[in-house]
Amino acid sequence: MSIPTPHNAAQKGDIARRVLMPGDPLRAKYIAETYLEDPVCFNTVRNMLGYTGTYHGQEISVMGAGMGMPSMGIYSYELFHFYDVDEIIRIGSAGALQDHVNVRDVVLAIGACTDSSYAHQYCLPGTFAPTADYGLLDKAVKKAHELKIPVHVGNVLSSDLFYNEDPAAAPAWRSMGVLCTEMECAALYMNAARAGKKALAILTISDHIFKKEALSAQERQTSFSQMMEIALGI
Length: 234
Prior knowledge:
Blueprint: E1 18-21, H1 25-35, E2 37-43, E3 50-55, E4 58-63, H2 69-82, E5 87-96, E6 106-114, H3 134-146, E7 151-158, H4 169-175, E8 180-182, H5 185-195, E9 198-208, E10 213-214, H6 217-222, H7 225-233
EC number: 2.4.2.1
Function: Catalyzes the reversible phosphorolytic breakdown of the N-glycosidic bond in the beta-(deoxy)ribonucleoside molecules, with the formation of the corresponding free purine bases and pentose-1-phosphate.
Binding site for a purine D-ribonucleoside: 7, 182-184, 206-207
């Protein structure tokens, strides 16, 4: 495919080899303007904002991924395959499933269970287990300890459904020890595996499925500083 793609107006060289990907493009704008030096906007197509700047002398990009695995699948695939990106760190929100995981807590996703058929395209003779890059995960755990930020490390659920009609679904995943639910991680991990690249999801708990607690949209956009500090620190 030629550059730019139908979804990204950047040219080769406009995007760093390391990319942070929040779901919300406005969060990408906030991160770029708050944390990066001399950020330059490389994409406004479909308002999926992307920026490249430096952090402590290292070039880094931040770009929105949208909501759901189809959207994450498109943007992360193009970054890996067309823009020579080596690492993508998803920084997003999630809904807690376990009692010991609270609103504003940070979760590092070792693996991503899913109810999606995203892996069907690979024609595998079994069930694929999407997992994080261990090197990135290890760095994130160490950086969290260095910053004295407590984190939960474990399995998450990447679901195609935000509004699920099945009342038994959340309790079932909870019974398997899954920490939280979100909508993009599994597609990112599968794209990275297929491309031979690296990926990690760092998630901040924005709501609790069983305690009925939640952050506002504005709080979700601007209050996830601990997650951002871990991601930028690695």
